[in-house]
Amino acid sequence: MCWYSTLLFILSFVITLIYGENRKMTYAFNPGCTHQCDNSTILVHVTADGINDTLHHIWDFTSKPTVFLALTPPNTELTIDWDNFLWNGKPGSVKFSNEVTYSFSVVFDKIIEYNDTNNTAQYNPTNHSKDYVTILHPEVYNWTVKNHIVTDDVITLVVESSNYKSDNISKSGVTRITLNAFGNSEHSSLQPHLLHTNNATQMDIVLDGFNVSYSKSRFALGLLILSTNDRHSNLTQLKRKSLDDEHSPGIFTVGEVLTPFEADTTKSGYLQWRTVAYTSHSRLMTNSTDVIETRARHVEYPRRRLNLTVVSSYFGEALNIMPVHDMFVSFGVKDDGYYSKTGYLSWTVLAGIGRPAEEGFSLLVLLILAIGLGLPALLIIVGTICIITRRIARKRDAIFITN
User: Fold this and answer.
1) Which of 12, 140, 197, 344 shows a CA-CA span of 20 to 30 A to 369?
2) What is the annotated signal peptide range for this record (predicted)?
């Protein structure tokens, strides 16, 4: 079995080279906050320490739900002036002790219900008619923590809110957001089992049991995407095929939104998802629907759109010279019965720094291939050696007898 152990070591070494070393993670809830915070204050800071850098995951639900990823040198501390952060979002009330190498953020700006009378499952962001669209503002929600799980490799936070009420809009139902930070590179345990690196936060958004405003209601999400790239840089949106049928059978398309790549590949960010959402708690292909995104557009007056969020409190006026885009993601497919058919919708997406992971053969598959191909090859080699040895031995015997 020595050859088997050697093969396993080599494969493990290759996996490490491809995906990198694990990060050591620590978790802080409302770090440094005392009398200013109450049950409605939710800000989580996950510190993921690597060999050469530290990735900070900040999950902020004090205003619009925000995932703020910041890559810094090691031993960098986060400090929050909670008085100024909570009451007026003062610039500089969130800061790091060292300069941020690169940051990438996604903000949940809107939850949109729209009347798909044309049965296209494509949201039109230019139509603001009340007969067409109802906007829910996530910063109005009363978010509560339902669960948090801390392990060596994964940190999980589950936040939800029920019964939205604002102005003349009232919605029953639950909005749930599950966030995961990872210390390793692996497939998520949650269907559709996205392949994450150790530089990513996974977001799972659920809209469960909503009462609808229209007879043909569908839902969409409005996202704000920002990074510390050049002000005039654009996002690249693409679809690519995936070879993976082991973890997500039947789902062969991956959607991605990418910031420009630089020579230093850590100075880039991305969103990545499989082009499927689920319409039932049981996440099966039979209970799935399509994901359709609009083209990302540059945002005018980003500081105003991001007011009171953690990114606004960190960047301040610099937001006005940063690339900030908005993008809408809608869910559904023609003749699927609309949202009211099941009253449930879930979508999972990764936000990460660096380049997104690409599917390859898993370690298990590589071992099976190695054993399946290596064992017959080994038998052939051993058999050939035995045959040659026997022939040489026979020739020696023949020569000996002749003499």
Assistant:
1) 197
2) 1-20
